[in-house]
Amino acid sequence: MDFRTAEGRQRYDALVADAAKTVVGLDFDGVLSPIVDDPTQASIHPDGPEVLVELADQVRGIAVITGRPARQAITLGSLDEVGVTIAERGHELFLLGQYGNERWSSGTRRVVSPRPPRGLGSFMSELPQMLRRHDAADAFVEEKGLAVAVHTRRLPDPRAAYDRLLPVLTDAASRFGLGVEPGRLVIEVRAPGMHKGQALRTIHDELGAHGVIFAGDDLGDIEAFRAVGELRDEGAPALLICSGSEEQKALVELSDIVVDGPAGVLALLRQFARDAAAVHAPAD
Ligand SMILES: O=P(O)(O)OC[C@H]1O[C@H](O[C@H]2O[C@H](CO)[C@@H](O)[C@H](O)[C@H]2O)[C@H](O)[C@@H](O)[C@@H]1O
Fold it and tell me: PANTHER family per the record (predicted)?
């Protein structure tokens, strides 16, 4: 394991020693699920289900914290099945969807979701015209119930289209009392307020945890990175993992360790679970 600093290694060791008090927060796209061109075709990495079950045995709790609608992430991540296995072993898996606005757990198996924000319907009725006017009529529009995401990945020049649309959609969103969440070749328009940091902090406190690991890959994860920084300042052991990619480097400098995409994240979490199990195994 190549930690960026000596402190990173110490943080990992402190969390291994105290794994039973640790909450693990995981982003979905780019962290548990490899990035693909078509968002509807994403799915959890093949190692994901097994690693989540192994990890759940060692830690206080696992929360998948995603921009995806909760029901969609449950399907793409096979999280219902994973949650059943985790529950059979006496633990609970949490899923906080739409940046923490929606909540599901393997205990309740129900999604709790607020109403869509005011202004979203009006924004969406103007959206096709805005896309046409800015040479992005073929952008993929993902309707998320509480939000809408405009994807440029499959346009001829994805980065140029993204750069063209970002100021336009930001301006239009603010006219309707909405905010933008920029991401990997996606611009999402949603209600301002809730973010992944608040979601992670809430689950950490609810579970009475003292220690946190968070893995992210994109701009929408920065608030969770901030929340981890605050918990660290309050004395909790904390580790930040960047799921590295050529496409997004914003989290590298903020992280304790950079790994190679979802496969790297899952290998690290598997190692963590095994190291924690070894520490707590009864001596012969
Ligand atoms: O918070 P996350 O779990 O990372 O979700 C963020 C957005 O992810 C999805 O888009 C991203 O993944 C797609 C599939 O790999 C990819 O095609 C797209 O370019 C990425 O931006 C998802 O479609 C969005 O709704 C999420 O908000």
Answer: TREHALOSE 6-PHOSPHATE PHOSPHATASE
**Same domain, yes or no: 137 and 276:** no
Q: How confident is the model over 20-58, as pLDDT tens digits?
A: 999 999 999 999 999 999 999 999 999 999 999 999 999
The count of structural domains within the chain is: 2
Same domain, 49 and 110: yes
Question: Do 131 and 98 belong together in one domain?
Answer: no
Please tell me the residue having the least CA distance from ligand 1 atom 8: 29
Alpha-carbon distances of 39 from 35, 57, 222, 232, rounded to whole Å: 8, 31, 21, 34
Nearest atom of ligand 1 to the alpha carbon of 144: 25
Residue from 27, 28, 29, 37 whose mutation best tests the ligand 1 pocket (most atoms within 8 A of CB)? 29
What residue has token string 């990992």? 12
Indicate the pTM of the whole model.
0.97
Does ligand 1 have an atom closer than 6 angstroms to the CB of 196? no
Q: Which atom of ligand 1 is nearest to the CA of 183?
A: 21
ipTM: 0.99
